[in-house]
Amino acid sequence: MSAGNATPPTGATFEFPVRVYWEDTDAGGIVFYANYLKFFERTRTEWLRALGLGQHQLREDTGGFFVVSETSVRYLRPARLDDELIVTARLAETGRASLIMAQQVFLKQDRVLLCEGSIRIGWVDAAALRPARIPPMILEALER
Predict the structure, then answer these.
(1) What helix, strand, coil percent values describe the chain, rounded to 5?
(2) Helices 136-143 + 55-62 axis angle, to 10
(3) Which of 96, 82, 111, 3 is nearest to 47 (CA)?
(4) Dihedral (C-alpha) 33, 66, 1, 26: value to the nearest 10 degrees?
(5) Which residues have a catalytic role annotated?
(6) What is the value of pTM for the model shown?
(7) In whole angstroms, what is the distance from residue 112 CA to residue 138 CA?
(8) In sequence order, which residues have a C-beta less than 8 Å from that of residue 144 and are 6 or more positions away?
């Protein structure tokens, strides 16, 4: 899975380009279903980075990090070897200790929707690995 430059956050939806490689596919050259979760993860990471919230720095500055606590994914059409995709991330809900992200994967050339999902990410204290409140600095960045 390789990506080019991310689109900076404009409006509510963040977009990130991904190309499908052999490592992303099954023997038939179709993206293996679990790899869409990897595409989603990479896009969420780049979304946070575009907001000035690099995950490594967040952990050092706050002593916490995000973890995936729940996923729901719907597969509509297959992506194939060498396809260029656009993966999106949109903040759907903000809580005190978690965020719900709406994510989609489109075929770049004609914007056909291939896959969509809802991902809950929770904030945890790194030392205890227990749920914690999302730090105010993160919530402020999300509001911008």
Answers:
(1) 25, 45, 35
(2) 140
(3) 3
(4) -20
(5) 26
(6) 0.89
(7) 32
(8) 51
Determine the pLDDT at residue 70.
Answer: 97
Distances from the Cα of 112 to the Cαs of 23, 70, 86, 88, in angstroms? 23, 25, 10, 13
Q: Which residue type sits at 15? A: E
In sequence order, what are the residues at sequence separation of 6 or more whose Cβ sits closer than 8 angstroms to the Cβ of residue 120?
Answer: 68, 69, 70, 71, 98, 99, 100, 101
pLDDT tens per residue across span 86-99? 999 999 999 999 99
Residue showing tokens 């993206």:
31
Residue ranges in 51-83 assigned as alpha helix (H)? 55-62
Here the tokens at position 82 are: 């060498």
Q: For residue 103, which of 28, 30, 114, 94 has the smallest C-alpha distance? A: 114
Residue 68 one-letter amino acid: V
Query: In 3-state terms, what secondary structure has residue 60?
Result: helix
